[in-house]
Amino acid sequence: MSSAALPVIPLPYPLLLLPTARLTIPVSSAAGELLLDLVQEAEAPPVVAAVPVPSTEAPTLHEWGSAARIVRVVRPPRSLARDTQRPYLLTVHGLARIHLPEAHNSREKIDVLAERIVEYPNADGTASVEATATFKAAAIKLLDRLARDAPNDSKRDFYVKLSNMVDEVTTQRAPWLADMLVASLNSEYADKLDFLSAVGPDDRLKRATAIFIKQTSISEVSKKIAQSIDESLSKQQKEFFLRQQLAAIQRELRNLNRAPPRAGSPAPPESKGVSAPPSELDDEDQAEQEEMADIRTKIEAMAKSSEERKMAVREWRRLKRTPATSVEHGVIRNYLEWLTAVPWPASARAAQTGASLAALHNRSFLANARAQLDADHYGLDKIKKRLIEYLAVVRLKGLQAERESQLEVEKTAQLEAKTDIQEKADEQSKALVRVKSTSTPVPKPLVRKSVKGPILLFVGPPGTGKTSLGQSIARALDRPFQRISLGGVRDEGEIRGHRRTYVASGPGNIVQALRKAGRPDPVILLDEIDKISQGNFHGDPAAALLEVLDPEQNHSFHDHYINVPVDLSQVLFICTSNTLETIAAPLLDRCEVVHLSGYTYSEKMHIARRFLLPKQLQANCLTADHLSLDDSVLTHIATHYTREAGVRSLERAIGAVVRYKAVEWAEYCDSIGADPNVPYPDVSAQQGDASPRYRPAVEEHELETILGIARWDEDELDREERRGLVYGLVVTGMGEGGVLPVETIMVPGSGKLKLTGSLGDVIKESGELALSWVKRHAYDLYITKTRAQDPLKNPDPVDVHLHLPSGAVRKDGPSAGVAMTCAFVSLLTGACVPSNIAMTGEVTLRGRVGAVGGIKEKVLGAHRAQISKVILPWANRKDVEHDVPKEVRAAIQIVFVRTVEEALEAAFGKGVVGWRRSDVLVESRL
Length: 926
Ligand SMILES: Nc1ncnc2c1ncn2[C@@H]1O[C@H](COP(=O)(O)OP(=O)(O)OP(=O)(O)O)[C@@H](O)[C@H]1O
Hints:
22 strands, alpha/beta
């Protein structure tokens, strides 16, 4: 054992330095300065005695301490140096245990850096294998536990590394590792102090082992305590939550029991003083209760043991179980609101349908329906006839269904009566009878059976009254009317709804329409079914519509949101569409097509006078006295400002005229100080001769000021008579008829045909066919001199270019054959077709002119375009006879042709195009 005199650094409780450890402590400025001097003077880092002072009451140095090397002395920044409170910082590194023999005896004051004699006990040597093994086991156990409970990855890694070190330590290094572990693993002060006095290797290992075992058990216990605290906390939370709910329930009950104050009774204390008027915003709880009560009543009104009732009851129970503040509560409630708002056919609300049954029972039902249709629409005789037939069938089916339901109810009642008799007669078999009686069907309310009828599909150009016909049908049947616009519907969910799992899910537009109608038997108009998109990644809306429209399936229509089969069999569906081409075949198959093909000018005049003008006058708060429009003015508007099959633009133009007059009238009244609401004749009686006068009549020349420059004049001027130019007749995608120029020119080339204008395969083929026919008959038409010559190569080689304008619009079909043939003949002969002639018809290679579709639309379109002669296939005579109004037939010359030769004669005029008579086309008879 050696000894030495070392300056002492007392370590106040709870500081302690073990060999191998490092410690930073604050020291006073005086001690700091001394230490700095010491460091500066010494050559090697000076060694001090870091000795703990365990007691604060009787501060004496401990018997054991550590010899420590000074690592660093830090002086506080200069500006703060005057601040005496601010200490110097001393960092020391523990080297070895030291013993202070006179520590206990010294009663003197502990001076910092006073020198003391210290002894270095002999701590070298190797530990025994047993002591090392137990030390290792205890240390590893503790370190593993600490690693398991480590709050983060870096801590865990630290403990794992230490554990590995312990695992590999030798008996020689074990005491050193024991020092290190005890210093770094938050051991208790007393334990560390005790450990500091252990010198021998085995002794150090044993005491360290004891400390580790103690720490392990402490950590186990503290974990258990933490767990139990956690549990008790969550219990507290639960209790808190339940108490909140209890408070809410008690509040509800209080509201429920709060009786309305009787007259004369003292007002409640809070309403004393200035009483604010009651606001519906304050009555949140009450409104909530009322809504819930409403849902409940509706569920109770649902037919017993029906699917919808079962679902509603199930959801109601779930709603009651779910906390009112949760998201799920809102979702369930929303669902219940929808479910109870659907007019279920079998529910008590179906009694409302009695109203429409009364309409069906009415003996003058058909006469009323006819009157209704006539009152709402002008003309459309054939369509009205078809609708009356339809309504008659709907009525018969409705009455028949009612009779059947009645019989069913009677039968059930009889069955019940029989069961009663049986019950009384056979007392002993009571139990058995009861079983039977429960299995007999419950008497159902008078439920109307499904009324399966054809589904009408109105096809026609825009503004021809398809939607308003649907409304008239609903009025005639005394049923609510709902319109669902399908234009642009891409997602099946829009028809079928979205499942409840979706955010912001809701039912589809069929169920929405039913809810709005409030009855299970409305008339639902599916508008623009041609614009619905078919099969894409959002599902197939057209397929969903099939289920809606199919009478075999629609008694159990599945809406994803409602999730209970909805019976649509009593709904009358009517569809509208502009064209049949884009409607899916299966959908079309379920509909009965009714064509509406546009109005003639005279029909438009009548519609304008009887319907559109009164409607616009009413909408703009004027009367017939304020505005008069002559027939000539109306015709001018229709011919120069609108060119459409329907009457929508006409209505818009009339609306503009009415609004113009409304402004004039208001200004006039203001100028003479009259009330604008006084009828015009009374005001005109007041007006003096000197005052400016108001003129109700609108003159033709004023239209340009009101509506702007006429739209269609230019087009008419554009139509010209030219070589190679012929006018054909077309039906557009919107179902409107019109005139389309067929333009051809010759360009230098090699006898080829070029076709442009966004043409489909069929129209391209008919172009080639027309040219072949002309080439074949070039000699007959005096285009070439011999039969063998090709008119496109002789005298000069040329190409023929045929173009149909409006290149962006796709065109197809064979009906331009005649017009193309005439255009080629005109181009090659130089003869022109007059611009007031338009034509349509399919051409065969043999030179026959075949029938085409859309004759009515085409002829009406030609009439609107002021064409005076149309050339049509002979086979379409019946269409003209049946469909084209008489006044149009009277206004236009219609020439029916069987062959191309006849068509050429009608187009160019008799004898204009030559024809070698000797060689008349001989038809082959196959
Ligand atoms: N024959 C008619 N008699 C009286 N009014 C008519 C007639 N035809 C159309 N109308 C009126 O024309 C307007 C447009 O009609 P509606 O909306 O029914 O056209 P639509 O065929 O449904 O058009 P879209 O295809 O664009 O939906 C309505 O105000 C309607 O009352």
